[in-house]
């Protein structure tokens, strides 16, 4: 589902189902691009949350996503020695490590992703209702 915000920006609402989860949002981002009909430009994908992120990685073997989630857990354990009283510091740290936005070039009306690349919403403190903003900037 896509919610129009303005002429160039759309919102993708998402529901996550576990504490840590990667959701492939490539098809949603692609629909935002198709709706706008831009041929050349930049597609900017932004996550407005402090315990979630967005990344681009392999879309073929789901074990890659699993490995990333597991390795981030090993690097930043949920029960570490943190100061933040809400108890979700690990999720905040992972969100900062992965990042809150990605940009994909748009060429000939298509996202110029590599064959094995997909765009993933990264949940680190679910389950929650989340949103992603897709902003398509025309360059021609
Ligand atoms: Zn917090």
Largest sheet, in brief, is: 6 strands, antiparallel
Name the CATH superfamily classification: YjbQ-like
* Fraction in helix: 25-40%
How many alpha or pi helices? 3
* CATH architecture descriptor name: Sandwich
Q: Report the structural category.
A: alpha+beta
Structure explained in plain terms:
The chain has 140 residues and is an alpha+beta fold. It has a single domain (3-138), classed as YjbQ-like (Jelly Rolls), CATH 2.60.120. The protein has three helices and nine strands. The chain has helices at residues 26-36, 62-75, 89-98, and strands spanning 3-4, 9-15, 21-24, 41-46, 52-58, 101-107, 110-111, 117-123, 129-138. It has a six-stranded antiparallel sheet, covered by helices on one side. A three-stranded antiparallel sheet has the order 3-8-5, with helices on both faces. A hairpin with a 4-residue loop joins strand 1 and strand 2 (9-15). It starts with a strand and ends with a strand. 29% of the residues are buried. The model has no long low-confidence stretch (mean pLDDT 96). The structure holds zinc ion.
Task: Quickly describe the structure.
The chain contains 3 helices and 9 strands, in the order E-E-E-H-E-E-H-H-E-E-E-E. The strands form 2 sheets. The chain has a 6-stranded antiparallel β-sheet, covered by helices on one side. Strands 3-8-5 form a 3-stranded antiparallel β-sheet, sandwiched between helices.
């Amino acid at each position: 589902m896509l919610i129009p915000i303005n002429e160039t920006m759309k919102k993708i609402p998402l529901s996550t189902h576990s504490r840590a989860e990667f959701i492939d949002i490539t098809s949603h981002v692609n629909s935002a691009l198709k709706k706008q009909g831009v041929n050349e430009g930049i597609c900017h994908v932004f996550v407005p949350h402090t315990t979630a992120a967005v990344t681009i990685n392999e879309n073929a073997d789901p074990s890659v996503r699993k490995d990333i989630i597991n390795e981030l857990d090993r690097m930043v354990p949920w029960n570490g020695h943190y100061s933040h009283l809400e108890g979700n510091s690990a999720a905040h740290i992972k969100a900062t490590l992965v990042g809150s936005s990605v940009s994909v070039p748009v060429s000939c009306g298509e996202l110029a992703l590599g064959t094995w690349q997909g765009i993933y919403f990264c949940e680190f403190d679910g389950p929650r209702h989340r949103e992603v903003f897709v902003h398509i900037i025309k360059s021609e």
